[in-house]
Description:
By secondary structure, this protein is of the alpha+beta class.
Amino acid sequence: MAIMKIKGVVKEYAWGNNDFLPSLLGYEVSDKPQAEYWMGTHPSGEAVTEGKNLSDVIGRRLPFLFKVLAIDSPLSLQCHPNKVQAKEGWKKEEELRAKGEPHNYQDDNEKAEVLCALTPVTALCGFKSFDEAVKALDEYIPLSFQNYLEGKKDIKDLFLSLFGLSQEDKNSVLEELGDNIEKKGKAKNEGEYYTTEGVITTVLKEYPGDIGCVFPLMMNVVHVAPGEALYLEPDTLHAYVKGNGMELMTASDNVLRGGLTPKRIDLKELSSLLYFGSSTPSNVEKRKKDGIVNYLTPSSDFMLSRLDDGTFSIPREIDAIVIVEKGRAEVRENEKMVKLEKGEVCFIEKGSSASISVSGTLYMASEAYN
Length: 370
């Protein structure tokens, strides 16, 4: 079975929206938020073909996990371990897992990811420079800055100091932040994107009492236009805020949270993973090869590609999953053909001589290849 139609798994999380996935996948709008559509072999949401798990049919698990994200409200601030950190963390928590106690690591793999925007996406990604962060904090929480943060030497010191406040002091900081956001009256939107002020207004409403609401002052607010992509290194603090996109990641479920969440935060472990230096996020480089637009990331585990209007040969050395975003497609391998309408998904097994004819736009997730 070198090519086969597969069906993924819809995940209902509170931050999802109600209409994007139903519109893409062709089912009725739900009264529950539809947040993610998983396409892959991850045990927490495995694709099926003809009633069987994909991994059972192909005899292995894939190194990547392909998703569609539908984001209506901010996800938690989070980061992921790199390969060394994941292996060390998994090993040291062996006893905790055996006892059924709270732990951080779900597997021993890193989790890098790339998100290609299908609609305008706003995200938080990495830290500003220390000077920029201090300027923003002093502008929006001047009294709190004077009381709790003045004299701190770097981003890590600011970050840990805010987390270390009592809840009463955190509430005071957040009240000052909310008051000043409204008093200054700066624009909360740039077209379909949130500004920093828009992000803060949103998270203050969604996560009252959460000190993570201050962190957008210290972080880069990123706007990702449709067709462009954002790559997230494993050690980067980030959160998607609003928008819809195709996400491709290493097949891992390792998440350490850093705010904007009611879930457990292990501050010691989180701070050991995080990169606290400044970063300047940029769009992922795109390169066209044999008509296929490839999004080039540092990851050796995956490649995200886009195929627009045409016929394309799929490299024989890769396993691939494809989904039609708009229009339709035909996947051929020798005498077999799989027809795909909007929202339908096909798995292409490595070693096959498959070709795809696309009328519209199709996204492909695969192993990395040259």
